[in-house]
Amino acid sequence: MNYLRRRLSDSTFISNLPNGYMTDLQRPDPAQPSPATAAPPKSPTVGSTPPVTSPTPSPAPERKPQPSQSSGAGFFSSITNVVKQTAASAGLVEQSAVTTPKKFKILLVIDEPQQEWAKLFRGKKVHGDYDIKVEQAEFSEINIIAHANGSCNVDMQVLRNGTKVARSFKPDFVLIRQHAFSMTQNEDFRNLIIGLQYGGIPSINSLESIYNLCDKPWAFAQLISTYRKLGAEKFPLIEQTFYPNYKDMVAMPTFPVVVKIGHAHSGVGKVRVDNHSKFQDIASVVALTQTYTTTEPLIDSKYDIRIQKIGNDYKAYMRTSISGNWKTNTGSAMLEQVAMTDRYKLWVDTCSVIFGGLDICAVKAIHGKDGKDYITEVVGSSMPLVGEHQAEDRQLITDMVVAKMNQAVGRTSTGSPNRPTTMQPSQVWCSRLHTPLQGKPRPGVLGAQQTPPAQPAKPAPPRQRNSAPQLQPEFKAPPQASALPQPEPLAQPQNEPTTQAQQKDLSPEQSQPPVVEQPTAEEKAQAHPSLNKSQSLTNAFGLKETSFFRTASEDVAKAETMRNLRKSFASLFSD
């Protein structure tokens, strides 16, 4: 065993092992048949293939008694355990590979890296069975390829602790906590929103609402519709004028006004204009931006109001400027939570139904020194969290995402045929071995559950067995028989029908046609005496570099090759 551990610690030896060998070691061996049914005695026929066992002892010195199979299998199982332990300690295979793979759903969170959403979703389940695997990135770090059949691939390249990490996956759900469009630094990711919508990926908020909120004048038009329904008393919307381009900025508004250029956030693109000359100067600047503009009357504000809604949770905040800047979100400001009134609740509930519904939204308003309120805009799931209850708000978002995933995501786990994932070559041909072959009985290891036919089977020519269910001793013909010409194998004659009573006594192995044993690895090694055991072990794994689209005979041959490798591996340390 010490020699084995030293041998397996050599990286050159492990690297020379064929692909998929470690995976095949984890596959359990088939059940061993009893000695009584493994090799039943048969009457010899002229020209037939010699049976596996013979009633007379074989003169070959290599022949071992039948009970030695159990000791050989036990020795091989100990070698297998050593291989797994040594390879796992060397980091060549994962120690958890033998466990059943976990079922999970992939949640794509688009947010800044400072917010670690994976910790919040740890331990959460979808349908009680599926874990939630969080993939977090910003809009600038992902790319999307969507297909008309509903498949959506996301390629992600992020920097984590100075290391560039690249992944490709198929998300089951998306949480968007970042602005999809802003004219600041040309941040336009609306094409990614289109890709997610094209792939049919459910999200919070809905992709339709996120796309509609990418232009503030478009969202303000929805507020105008609500204002007309409820009236100025219940829904006090601020007055606003829209200019599609600089050429229409001719009509003079009432000064002072606030000019908002394009679509931006956090006070960017807002300019205070006090007279006509400054308004003309701003129009010349808008000509360079080639975008739309809106104007609002400047409100002498006492404080700003923010009413947010996350699911069924409501909070209201009041922000007062300390620095005296007319932009309360610029400079120093004091933020405090205020009571949620019915008036505030009506505002946010009314705005949460636009564009098909907003699960996460906030309404911004200004309370002027004249004692009046003015609603200015509505924001969606990209709203920043403020106040002392940010941790509670994140937990509310987490619970809402889990609830939405239970409703929108099916029970098909990621990696199923509906959402395929990358498979190793060994997994491809091993999985195909478990499917029945068309028009042929299952060979060897796959045919253990076959039942004997009720009537005499049609004679068939002998075929090679490409997989052996157990380690059988080698059979060698007597020396005098090797000089004789080898007759062609013949099928069982048809003039000897088998009665039903005899068929019941026959086992599945006896009812199968005669087989021809493949040469073992030791026989191949004896044919090339110049090769050492390592070379014979490598030659025993005779893999051809073909594509994964193989026929059933090639898959069965692959299984036999793996079995021969195991036998050669056991004989390597039997000396």
TrEMBL record:
GO terms for cellular component: Golgi apparatus; synaptic vesicle membrane. The keyword Phosphoprotein applies. Residues 1-73, 434-538 are annotated as: Disordered. Residues 102-203 form the Synapsin pre-ATP-grasp domain. Residues 34-51, 477-497, 508-519 have a biased composition (Low complexity). GO terms for molecular function: actin binding; ATP binding. Its main location: cytoplasm. Residues 529-538 have a biased composition (Polar residues). It is found in: Cytoplasmic vesicle, Secretory vesicle; Golgi apparatus; Presynapse. Residues 453-462 have a biased composition (Pro residues). Keywords: Actin-binding, Cell projection, Cytoplasmic vesicle, Glycoprotein, Golgi apparatus, Methylation, Phosphoprotein, Repeat, Synapse. Signal peptide: none annotated. Residues 205-407 form the Synapsin ATP-binding domain. It holds the Pfam family Synapsin_N. GO terms for biological process: neurotransmitter secretion. Belongs to the synapsin family. Neuronal phosphoprotein that coats synaptic vesicles, and binds to the cytoskeleton. Acts as a regulator of synaptic vesicles trafficking, involved in the control of neurotransmitter release at the pre-synaptic terminal. Also involved in the regulation of axon outgrowth and synaptogenesis. The complex formed with NOS1 and CAPON proteins is necessary for specific nitric-oxid functions at a presynaptic level. This is Synapsin-1. It comes from Oncorhynchus kisutch. The lineage of its organism: Eukaryota, Metazoa, Chordata, Craniata, Vertebrata.
